[in-house]
Design brief:
The protein has about 110 residues and is α+β, with helices and mostly antiparallel strands. About 45% of the residues lie in helices and about 15% in strands. The protein is built from four helices and four strands; from the N terminus they run H-E-E-H-E-H-E-H. The protein has a four-stranded antiparallel sheet, with helices on one face. It starts with a helix and ends with a helix.
């Protein structure tokens, strides 16, 4: 089903991010509680800077910033850097998720 496939992709993405150093995940870690996006940061790097690197170096679009929820970011302690939000849908392929996680791995390890 559509939901099962999306959960499969989200599970892969979430487990990949959880296994990387310098990644802070703000979304639930239970795939059944995640809709279709994961919010995270890399260390204390501004989320807009990460989004720009993803766009210019990897041709990947994410949504950085405060997502119309400044009080949520105050609660999370991300009021100065925002967060990166990546969304997954039924139309994504596992290869695209792997491309994304490879890019995040490179950025988080200072390889770009």
């Amino acid at each position: 089903t559509i939901l099962n496939y999306e959960h499969y992709l989200i599970s892969y993405l979430l487990s990949s991010l959880l296994n990387m150093k310098n990644i802070k995940i703000y979304s639930p870690q239970d795939v059944n509680l995640i809709t279709n996006s994961i919010a995270f940061n890399i260390s204390d790097i501004d989320s807009s800077n990460i989004a720009q690197i993803l766009n210019s170096s990897f041709d990947i679009a994410v949504r950085p910033g405060f997502h119309c929820a400044p009080l949520a970011h105050k609660t999370l302690g991300t009021e100065s850097q925002g967060a990166i939000r990546v969304s997954v849908s039924y139309f994504n392929k596992l290869s695209e998720i792997k491309t994304f996680t490879d890019a995040i791995y490179k950025i988080s390890n200072g390889n770009i």
